[in-house]
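User: Please predict the structure of the protein below. I'd like the answer in structure-token form so I can feed it into my own downstream comparison script.

Assistant: Understood. Taking the following sequence of 262 residues as input:
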Amino acid sequence: MGVPDGTGSATSGVRAGWLTVFVDLAPDEHAAGAVFWAALTGAALSASRGAHDEFATLLPASGAAYLRVQRLGAGPSGVHLDLHVPDLDDATALATGAGASVVARPGHVVLRSPGGFPFCLVGLQADDDAASRTPPVRLADGHRSIADQLTIDVTPDRWDDEVAFWPRLTGWPAAPASRPGMVRLHTPSSLPVRVLLQRKDEGPTSGHVDVATDDRPAEVARLVALGAGVAALGPAWTVLDPPAGPSLCVTDRDPATGLVPR
């Protein structure tokens, strides 16, 4: 869940030119999870690719793709973030200097933040600089929605480490969000995804995707009809458990701006 309420621009850091959010699906959840996320976003699912046909991209009707699904070899479903950077060596040195640890380097670089959140550094693609943000989807009843935010749910004992790490890695200023225990990064407006840090009560650091909508009851009803279940109800968000894959939140943020309406 999460409801940031501001904007900003990048200053230094790894100079990410684009962001991609991966929904990582356990083997037994992959098929149903991919179908659900395509329906949620109104995107077409690309042909599978990868050594084991494990990757697919959610292709929006307009704008550049920024969401992908991945079938894991093992382990539970989750999410991770790819930062597209101009220089992998420089970005990796910055990331490890800020406290990240390298897990693998199979061409791109797989890392974990100090609190344990998985992310990757990948080379900037030729068309990333020209990529445009995907607009919200307008549904049949007139309401709009877009999956536009990654929230990193941070275990209490690593909260300070994560709050220090992500601004240093990205170069994006951080500021308190609209509620206690939340810190938003001022993600540049040219990028497709906002990033929010949220302190959780217990459990390991993880992450989830937030959906912005101008009609939360209608959007929740739509996703429930696709097979999701309501797990929790908050003052400005609803937590949903999809039929397969990681939980997500539907929030009251403006789908055009990503901000909390005033």
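That's the full token string. The longest strand covers residues 144-154.
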